[in-house]
Design a protein that fits this description.
The chain has about 450 residues and is mainly α. Among the domains are: about 140 residues, Serine Threonine Protein Phosphatase 5, Tetratricopeptide repeat (Alpha Horseshoe); about 70 residues, Alpha Horseshoe (Serine Threonine Protein Phosphatase 5, Tetratricopeptide repeat), CATH 1.25.40.10. It is about 70% helix and about 0% strand. It is rod-shaped and about 135 Å long. This is TPR repeat. Keywords: TPR repeat.
Length: about 450
C-alpha cells in the first residue's frame, strides 16, 4: 500500500539529519497555533503509479515473512531501477504530488549511497512540486534541506532553506530558531545567532520548561565572544542549576572574576574547592590568589599544598615558591622552609635559599641558617642581594660564638650598598664581643 507523500520519510534520512546534531522533530517545543492557511487541493495518484510505488516501498522495506518462509531481503538497486523508470515515464504525464513521491524516495537512495549532494538535489526537486504537495511535506523537506546543507558546510544555502522553512510553517517553534542560530553561528554571524538562540530559549522558558543544555551553551559562548560576561554568567547559572557539572561551577567563578566581583568569585571557588570541583592547575592557583588578596595566606597556601598532593598543580619552582611565600606570611615557618627549599633546589640562583636563611634565623635554627647560606653561595647563578645573605650568616655565626666566621661574613656584607652601614656597626660590636669573650675565657682558664 502506498504511504501518502508527506509522510514518506525513510528512517535513514531521519538518522542522517540527526547525525548533523539537530533534532528531527520540531513539534514538541511549539506552541500550537491554528493553521489559517488555505488548504491545498492535491491532485490524485494514478492507480498504476500507486502500484509501482508500493513495489518500491517493498524493495526498501520488505514485508515481514509468512510462517515457514524465508525473510525477503532489501533490494535497493531494484528500487532505484524502478524509480528511474517511473521518472522517465512520468515526464509531462505525472502531477507534482506523484513526482514528489518519486524524488522523496530517490533522496533516500542517494543518502544510502552516501551521496549528500544528490540527496539535497532530490529534496530540492520535492519542494519544486509545491503547491501540489501537502504543506507538511514541503515544511519537512525544507527543514531537511537546511540541515543537510549545514552538514555539508554550505551555510548560504542552509540559511536560505531555513528561512524558507520558517516562512512556510504556521509558527516557527523553538527548535527552528535554535537550528537557525547554529547555522548563523557557523557563518560567523553572531548577531543573528544570538538573536535566534535567545528567542528559542525564551520560548521554552515561557512555556515553563528548561531549554536544552547545548542551547544555554551556545548562548553563553556567543556572549563570551562579545565580552558580555554579565549575560554569559546568566546562561552559566542556568547550566549549573539544570545541568550540574564541575566545569560549569568553575566557569561561574571565572565569570564573576571577569565582572570584578571577587567576593562572589572567591565564594564560588572556595565552595568548589571544598566540594572537589577544582581539577585544573589554573583553578587552584586562581583560588589561592583570591584567598591571598582576601588576607587569608594560610588558606591560600593550603590550596596549593592540596593541589600538589592531588597532582593537579605541577611542582615547578614558581608554584613551590608561591606556596612557600604564602606559608611564610601565615607564619607557618616549617612549611615555608620546606616549600621554599624545594623551590630553591629547582632554581639556577641562590636567592630563594638566601630567603630561607632568614626564616631559619626567625625560628632560631642557627645550624640550619648556616647550612642554607652555604647552599645559596654555592649556586652558580649568583645573588641579587648578596649583602643580606652575608649579614644574616654573620648574625648566625655570632650567635654560635663563631666570631671569626661572623666577622668574615659581615665584612662581605659591607661590600653591598644596602647592608654596608649596618654591617659596619655590627663588625665593631662583634669585635668587642669577641675581645670580651676571649678575655673571659682566658680569665676562667687561669
Amino acid at each position: 500500500m502506498l504511504v501518502a507523500a508527506g509522510l514518506v520519510l525513510p528512517s535513514a534520512v531521519e538518522k542522517a539529519v540527526s547525525e548533523l546534531g539537530y533534532s528531527v522533530t520540531l513539534g514538541s517545543a511549539a506552541m500550537a497555533q491554528e493553521d489559517t492557511r488555505q488548504p491545498r487541493r492535491l491532485p490524485g495518484l494514478a492507480l498504476k503509479f500507486t502500484e509501482d510505488m508500493a513495489k518500491v516501498e517493498e524493495f526498501i522495506n520488505p514485508p515481514d515473512p509468512e510462517d515457514g518462509k524465508p525473510a525477503a531481503k532489501q533490494d535497493l538497486p531494484a528500487a532505484e531501477k524502478l524509480l528511474n523508470s517511473m521518472e522517465k515515464k512520468c515526464k509531462d504525464k505525472c502531477n507534482g504530488y506523484e513526482m514528489a513521491n518519486i524524488y522523496n524516495f530517490m533522496a533516500y537512495l542517494a543518502y544510502e549511497r552516501e551521496d549528500m549532494k544528490k540527496t539535497a538535489f532530490y529534496y530540492e526537486k520535492v519542494v519544486e512540486q509545491a503547491p501540489e504537495i501537502p504543506w507538511g511535506l514541503e515544511e519537512q523537506t525544507l527543514l531537511y534541506l537546511a540541515k543537510l546543507y549545514a552538514g555539508e558546510e554550505n551555510y548560504k544555502k542552509a540559511i536560505h532553506y531555513m528561512d524558507r522553512y520558517m516562512n512556510t510553517v504556521v509558527s516557527p517553534n523553538a527548535d527552528a530558531f535554535y537550528t537557525k542560530s547554529t547555522i548563523c553561528y557557523q557563518m560567523s554571524d553572531y548577531d543573528c545567532s544570538l538573536k535566534n538562540v535567545n528567542t528559542a530559549v525564551e520560548m521554552i522558558e515561557k512555556a515553563g520548561f528548561v531549554a536544552k543544555e547545548q542551547w544555554y551553551n551556545l548562548q553563553r559562548g556567543i556572549n563570551n565572544e562579545r565580552e558580555d560576561y554579565k549575560q554569559s554568567l546568566k546562561s552559566n547559572i542556568k547550566l549549573v542549576k539544570n545541568y550540574p557539572k564541575k566545569s560549569y561551577w568553575n566557569d561561574m567563578a571565572s565569570f564573576y572574576s571577569l565582572l570584578e566581583d571577587n567576593d562572589k568569585a572567591l565564594a564560588v571557588m572556595d565552595a568548589g574547592f571544598i566540594g572537589g570541583t577544582l581539577t585544573k592547575e589554573k583553578q587552584y592557583l586562581q583560588l589561592a590568589q583570591f584567598l591571598y588578596q582576601a588576607d587569608a595566606p594560610y588558606n591560600a597556601a593550603m590550596v596549593i599544598h592540596k593541589g600538589m598532593k592531588a597532582n593537579a598543580i605541577e611542582q615547578t619552582e614558581a608554584n613551590l615558591e608561591k606556596a612557600g611565600r604564602y606559608f611564610l606570611l601565615a607564619k607557618e615557618y616549617k612549611m615555608a622552609i620546606d616549600y621554599l627549599t624545594r623551590a630553591g633546589d629547582k632554581s639556577d640562583k641562590g636567592d630563594i635559599y638566601s630567603d630561607v636563611v632568614g626564616i631559619y634565623l626567625a625560628v632560631e635554627d642557627l645550624k640550619g641558617a648556616i647550612a642554607m647560606g652555604k647552599k645559596a653561595l654555592d649556586k652558580k647563578g649568583g645573588l641579587k642581594k648578596p649583602g643580606r645573605l652575608h649579614y644574616n650568616m654573620g648574625s648566625a655565626y655570632f650567635e654560635m660564638k663563631q666570631f671569626d666566621a661572623a666577622l668574615k661574613s659581615l665584612q662581605k656584607a659591607t661590600e653591598d650598598r644596602e647592608t654596608k652601614k649596618l654591617a659596619e656597626q655590627w663588625i665593631k660590636y662583634v669585635e668587642n664581643e669577641k675581645d670580651r669573650y676571649e678575655r673571659l675565657a682566658e680569665f676562667y682558664d687561669k
